[in-house]
Structures are given as structure tokens and as C-alpha cells.
Amino acid sequence: MTTTAGNAEQMERLLTPEESRPAITGPLLLVLALLSAVAPFATDLYLSAFPTMTTDLGTTATSVQLTLTAFLVGIALGQLLFGPLSDRFGRMTPLVVGSLLCLVASAATALAPTVEVLVAARFAQGVTGAAGMVIGRAIISDLAVGAAAARAFSLMMLVGGIAPVVAPVLGSVLVGPLGWRGVLWVVFAIVAAMFVGVVAVVRETHTAGRRAKARADRDGSPSALRALGSRVYLGNALAFAFAFATMMAYISASPFVYQVMIGFSEVQYGIAFGVNALGLAAVSAVSARLAGSRSIRGLAGTGLAVCLAAVVAIVVIVAVGAPAWLLAVPLWVAVSSLGLVFGNATALALGGVAGVAGSASAVLGALQFGLGALVSPVVGMGGEHTAVPLAVVMFVAISIACASFLLGRERRS
Predict the structure, then answer these.
(1) How many CA atoms lie within 13 A of 200 on its CB side?
(2) Which of 275-289, 314-328, 353-367 has the highest mean pLDDT?
(3) 195: Cβ–Cβ under 8 A, 6 or more apart, which residues?
(4) What's the rounded Cα separation, in Å, for the pair 348 and 98?
(5) pTM of the model as a whole
(6) For residue 268, which of 60, 83, 168, 210 sits 20 to 30 Å off, Cα-Cα?
(7) Three-point CA angle 161, 165, 166, nearest 5°
């Protein structure tokens, strides 16, 4: 047995990356994209039902809002749990267990008799649903490097850009005939489709040979784990996370900017939000197409530079007191340009930490949602009639993203 494992490991080292890594097929990429889309569907699909939930459960708006907070906290913590587990035990076992438990938790949310039970179930749903997000990124890192990984991550981000557009609209249409419990059963159905896809399509990518090598690295020297503290990993991971924080600042403030300051109706706001999200999805698709012929670092750097320029324009518009409607164009540019950043920065961050891709993906995801949760309330601190907090938070976040990206550049020997 030892000889066989040793021979397999030796063969894996001799093969080129293209020969030793199975291709990322269309069905696999579709399932991995669904894993990444569960979070936006689980958060955005039931938002329009909050008033009804408050009445039906005999509780307060704050308590209902806590169901969303609990889910987001669960996602952040769940990634830190399932990422390292997938490095130790392989991708499939934690992924299947997490997906199955997420299915159970999703049923519990729809059946919850009280808001307290609902909050607990949503937290459990976030923790277990995080397995798909964090392990999905690790699987891509197992199967692809460089341009191929950047292309796959960008295509996943394309789905991530469309889901926030579809979910609120779909939720507002469904909450009337189905009620809030019916909407949560729709989330259950999405998670069920995710679970079926995992069982039917996904196969183990973190092989026994790779796990043994990773354990040997950790036991013999801290080099593999030390990679998580490397300048390249941290620089690109922070660039990704703070770029995401830039987008979350926009998302959190967008209802006030478009509806209160610009004067859009709810329908017009939905259209504007959708146009911005589709811009992000379109640029993500362009990024995926260019990844094979352009430097992925160059693409990410271009996206960050364009986003920074757009945010500077937002700061100038706010500082001089120009009409609020002028914010619409630079906001669209800032959000759309991030389509060049997310997939490529993820590939750059995870590309050098193959031995601990699950843990690296976990840290990346925890930073992403942690910073997102942090900036969301800050942009509303000045009230609903000013965009000053939005401009300041977006400028600080994208500036840190650009600085981190520069620090994450590999030194030439």
C-alpha cells in the first residue's frame, strides 16, 4: 500500500499540471457556480417578505433583520470550518456532509414556528451552506492554475453577478402567492438541486497523494501553512476582499442613493440595480474570455485602476455638491470594473497555495464576508440624504485594495 501511494505521488510530481489535473467540464463548472449562488439566493430571495414575517411571527423588524445577520455570520464562520476540513479529509466528504446539513437547515427555516428558531436555523444554514462556497473555490484551485483558473473563477463570478439581480425580483413575485414560508421552500429547492449536483457531478480532486504530501509539508516544515502568510497570498486576498467591500458599500447604500437622493421609484431602482449587476456580469464574461490571452495580473490591475478612477469621480461629485443623478454613471463603472478583479484576484491568491487551498479559500471567504458586513452599516451613518459616507467608504476600500494588490506582486529573482 505504501509503495503504491508513493508511486502515485511520484507520478503526480512528474506529470505537467495539464496532464495531472482533470479538465473543468461544463457540468462541473455549472454545479460549482450553483454552490456560489446559494448565498445570494438565500439572502436576497426573501427580503421583500420581511414585513409579512414580522406580522406572522409576532415579532419586531429588528428580530427579522437578525435572520439575515445570522446567516451572514454563519457563512463567514462556516468557511473557516469547512476549508481546513477539506484540506485534511478531501473535498467530497465535507462537501457532501455540508450540503446535506444545509438541506436540513433549509427545511428548518421554512418550518420555524418562532423567530428564535428561525434565527438559529438561518445561522445553521449559513454555516453549512458555506461548505459549497469555500470548497468550490478549492476544487477549481485543485484542477486549474493560472489563466485556466482565472477563467473558471470569472465564470463563477458571472453567476454571482446575475443571482443578486434575479433573486430580489423573483422573491417579490413569489412572496404574494407563496408567502414567506413558500419563498424559503424555494431556497430549499435550490439547495436540493445543489446537493443533487454535488452527488452526481463532483468528484474528489484533493487526492490521497496530495493530502499526504500536504501533511508531510506541515509535519516536516511549516512551508505550506506559511504560504497563507506570504505577501503574494495576503496581498491578492486583501485586494479581492477590499474590492468586494467596495461593492458591498454600493449595494448597502444604493436604495437611498437611487430612491431618496435621485428620486427613482422602486421599479426604476430595480432597473438601475439590475443594469449595474449586469455590467458586472458582462465584464466578468469578458475577463473569462481574455484570461487565456492576457496576463491575469494585468486584467486585475486594470479593473482596480478603473474602479479607483470611478470612485474618485464619485468623491468629486459628492464634494462639490453636484446633482445626485450624476452619481449613476461612475457607480456603474465602479461596479462593472470589478468583473476584472474578482476572478483574477482569486486565481492569483489561491494559485500559490495548492497544498492548503481549502484553508486559503476559507480565509479569503471570511475576509470577504467579514469586510462586507463591516462596511454595510457604516455607509448609512450619515442618514439617507447624503452620499458622503458612501464616497468615503468606497474610496478607502478601493485604495486599500489597490495598495494590497501592489504589495502582492511576486518578486522577480
Answers:
(1) 10
(2) 314-328
(3) 96, 99, 100, 102, 103
(4) 27
(5) 0.76
(6) 60
(7) 115
